[in-house]
Amino acid sequence: QVQLVESGGGLVQAGGSLRVSCAASGRTFSAYAMGWFRQAPGKERELVAGFTSAGGSTNYADSVKGRFTISRDNAKNTVYLQMNNLKPDDTAVYFCNAKLGRNTYWGQGTQVTVSS
After folding, report:
1. For position 9, what pLDDT does the model report?
2. What are the DSSP calls for 84-96, one per residue?
C-alpha cells in the first residue's frame, strides 16, 4: 500500500511558475513508475508527465512540453512537477500517480489555478 500526498498548488498569474510535490509513503518508492495527471472541470483526467518506469525515461503531454519538468528524489520519496510559463489552460486539479505491476495509487489532488 502506498499513500500519496500532493502539495504546492495555488493561484498564479499567467506566465508564472509553480512546483507541486508528491510525498509517498512506503519503502519501495524507487520501484514505482510515478506520474502527474490533471483534471479540469468538465474534462477527463489526462496524463501531464510521467516516468515510463521506476528509474527511466520521461514522457510529457504535448501541451506542456518545454514548460513542465518532472523529477524525483528517491531518498525523499518525493516526485516533483516544475511548471513554468503557466497558462490559464493549465488550470486543473493535479494528481500524483504511482504504479507498480498491477497496483495503481492516486493522491487526493492539489488545485492549480492560473489567472489571465
Report:
1. 94
2. -S--GGG-EEEEE
CA dist., res. 91 & res. 49, Å (int): 15
d(CA 110, CA 94): 5
CB distance 57 to 65 below 8 Å: no
Q: What distances in angstroms separate CA 4 from CA 23, 26, 63, 88, 96, one per listed residue?
A: 6, 10, 25, 26, 7
pLDDT tens digits for range 12-62: 999 999 999 999 997 788 889 999 999 999 999 999 999 977 667 899 999
* Cell numbers for 74: 528517491
